[in-house]
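Table 4 source record.
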Amino acid sequence: MDDVPAEEHALLEAGRAAAARLDWAGAHRHLSRAADHRALRADDLLLLSDAAWWLGRMAETMALSERVHRLYVEEGRLDRAALCALTTGELWLISGEVPVGLGWIARARRLLADLPEGEVHGYLVFTDGQMALEAGDDDAVTAATHRLADLARRQASPTLEALSLLLAGTQAVRAGRTTEGFALLDEAMLPVLAGQVEDGFAGNLYCQVMSLCAEVGDVRRMRTWLRATEKWCARFSDAVMFVGVCRMHRVQLLVLDAAWDEAAREAGLVQRELAAMNVVAVAEAHYQLGELHRRRGLLDDAAREYDAARAMGHPAQPGAALLRLAEGHPEDAWSAIAGALEAGPPPTRWHCLGPAVEIALAAGRLTAATALADELAAVAERTPGSLFRGAAQESRGRVDLALGHPAAAVGPLREAVRAYSGLGAPHEAAQAQAVLASACAAAGLPTDAEAAASAAAEARRRLGLLPARHRTPSGTLTAREREVLRLVADGASNHDVAEQLTLSAKTVGRHLANIYAKLGVTSRTAAVARAREQRLI
């Protein structure tokens, strides 16, 4: 059966040594050759499976994992078989095959049911806690967290302790208790930084902490953990999954930084490298490409990327709703954002609040916009230092301006510009500057209005965007549209305009939609600013 035992032994030893020094390409090469001579034992076959996973060979990893599981069952090592079933299930889940993944997790649960309590039981509890988090079952998350913490103490496991803190911290952050939540998450990372957590779980912790930073708009903390994760990934000769997820988070920051060409290149790499490995990361890469296209004014390209993201289960919001607004369809945009506000965990709603205010105002829904701005202000209070602080100030300014209180709008809008600029969000800062220019003009502050308009124009130039007047679609305003816009410029709501012109509110909304489309803008304040710039009113 084994004609060259010496050669096979040498290959096994070389493969094991390569794995020990985290040289996964070398481990895969040697162990694959050893497997050609005879069926490897379960432990060595597991090493080969691990090497395939680190190298991004997902199909091979799946096949090997199933073989390893069967071998462990045959050898009577049911705890190892259960762990293999659990990790195989998680691989299927992240690749988007949910029923198959749940089947493997059920198999792990069955195997562990009759075994003495051990560390593997903790990994199953963590998986249950993760699924409860996604389902929004707070009681189940709390129960899993306490069970995991108890197992961590009795098993003396730094990994289980870190995972229990991760669950508790995630639950707190998503409930709006961000200070408490990130304190728990920082503590969870201590054993990771000390090298006490197994590499697969360590990578999971790094990735989830970055994801939570993105959820709450804490870009400073996100940049810090991105650098730490990149440093951690550098320890490995190959780490396709974690490098790819890390790259996806870098894309999010690059889009925010307006480093759009680099963001597009990095997003393309995510899509290629993780295509068969992580459907969530690939979907987010498509969404971020949609975001950068929309910001650049490439609306057809943005629509294509949002559609691709949706096809992979991503909500594509608030970007898709803002796209409909940019296309001149405020009512469609409102329907889309209203649906998104009701879906998903709280952070999903938080990210939609600022855009929802802009869209509500464009659709003439002043009452809704006011309520949304108030909610966003409360979120910003719970998330100090986040992008939500700038969004809350901008939303407050937009609402004050729409209410006919431009002087009150100036202060919040200036704060928004400062907040966005301080967090390295130049596109958001430029948008807030443009609204500030309108507020200053309406408040009788011509010098300040000119300064803000010049700053917004210069920011657009630095971002590589065409001057607004060059992007205005063809078509001139009708006499009725000019009447509507003059009243809007004076601070009239849609209802006020309807009364003064003896129109229905729906007709006023339709006139505004036509005005936005003709002027190439997405809000009342931007329409007023554009019309004044072009001497239309």
